[in-house]
Amino acid sequence: xxxxxxxxxxxAAPGIAIGPALVFNPTAAADSxxxxxxxxxxxxxxxxxxxxxxxxxxxxxxxxxxGKADEAEIFGAHRMFLGDxxxxxxAVALISAGDQGAAQAIIAAGExxxxxxxxxxxxxxxARAADVRDVVGQVQRRLTGAEGLxxxxxxxxxxxxxxxxxxxxxxxxxxxxxxxxLAEGGPTTHSTILARALGIPAVIGLGDxxxxxxxxxxxxxxxxxxxxxxxxxxxxxxxxxxxQADLDAHTAAMRAEIGLPTMTRDGxxxxxxxxxxxxxxALAAREWGAAGxxxxxxxxxxxxxxxxPGEEEQLGLYAAVAAELPGTPxxxxxxxxxxxxxxxxxxxxxxxNPFLGxxxxxxxxxxxxxxxxxxxxxxxxxxxxxxxxxLPMVSTLDELRQAKDLLRQAQAQLAEEGVExxxxxxxxxxxxxxxxxxxAEALAREADFFSIGTNDLTQYTxxxxxxxxxxxxxxQPLDPAVLRLIAMxxxxxxxxxxxxxxxxxxxxxxxxxxxxxxxxxxELSCGPNSxxxxxxxxxxxxxxxxxxxxxxxxxxxxxxxxRALLR
Length: 567
Known about the structure:
By secondary structure, this protein is of the alpha/beta class. The protein has 25 helices and 16 strands. The longest helix has 28 residues, at 38-65.
């Protein structure tokens, strides 16, 4: 590969990493592995599968003991893939058919399964191809004695690979793993999710060119820009090291403000909390001074498994998240699938308009066997923590009342069983459908709080699929129509003494912070990395100015006018 080349990929986890390349190819040893008699190779394969399963089970058990239920679930899914009889049977067939040994056969069988997953029109399921490759890679290393990433990472380096599995990522010494650059990968692969949670700069989707870099060559990775520079010239290295120092200084300055109160210049308090899906994200939120979790997504616990998680597993997740932010409110959104999210354990029917169909609370109400264990787990978690329950995709008051009936049934069941539970849990609704904003007065009489999901509220208000690139210019969260619905929901909630949060992407945009406060929002919930920026914006705001800004924004004719006003 030529020197001083820049390769562009997908920004996966922010940060700058500069260091020597460590090219990691965990399957290379399989090509030269010794091949014995077929029956011997099958016996070696079975023994290796058992050893890997035991090793993964040990990691899973350790994580659960540490209260890291979501990370443990990753390895539980790995055991599921490893135990798939189809994987073993295909490898045995390849061994029996020719001159492939156990190491080559398990890699080939895994690649076939990975290829099938990659063809699926479901981002979460296709992302599981990396998990299959991870587990077969572990089997291959057992068979060949090849070294894993932790064995090879003897000094600080930027790791280059086709993909990195969670087992390698979590076993690598954090102080030596400066960052990683992947030829493949996606935003929902476990390596990407863990990189963001652990603060490891990463760029993915760089293509096969990145695999041709030479061992030890200097790499400069920009995880926010999604770029990788190979053997940068001296002046560029100086610039990048300066940018890295500036970023470190900026991060340090923001960390110094973590303890400052989140209130406007004139003393109006605004709650600043975090969106999270895992205990690792909750830990990152705590490190950035979050006053709790404003949106705990529960879908990951359901999406990557062939069976529905039981009550105990769900309780483990909620307790683990609450343990990372003790004494703070944890607002948990009940299962929100449908639309673009599907459950392997509960296949959804084909719908012509899935975003307008059977999703969110609608599924939970019609399938109480899914919602009830979740409600029971939330009530149990609430015995030791401030757990608040939030219902997604609410359109009518009747839906809220049905959910309240199910919650009362869950309370009665636990009381009869003598199980400790929350005394009076708060039950709130998401305002993400225009009908909910228009029905806000009635909902506010019976809901304990509102949380406005600006992503879906924008999508439904403007009749604009936010995933459709052809109409992406229509998707404008600052459109006055969306802002008017937010203002309407806030006014109705406040008339009944209810608290209003924002948990959509708009809540993490510091340019919109003063506007949202002026519209009447009491709480802002955003990703952990956005917390310091939003904190600064809250502290810079003045309520009188914010109210005037909101009034003028509501009089605008377009999102472009609102953006100009904010500038």
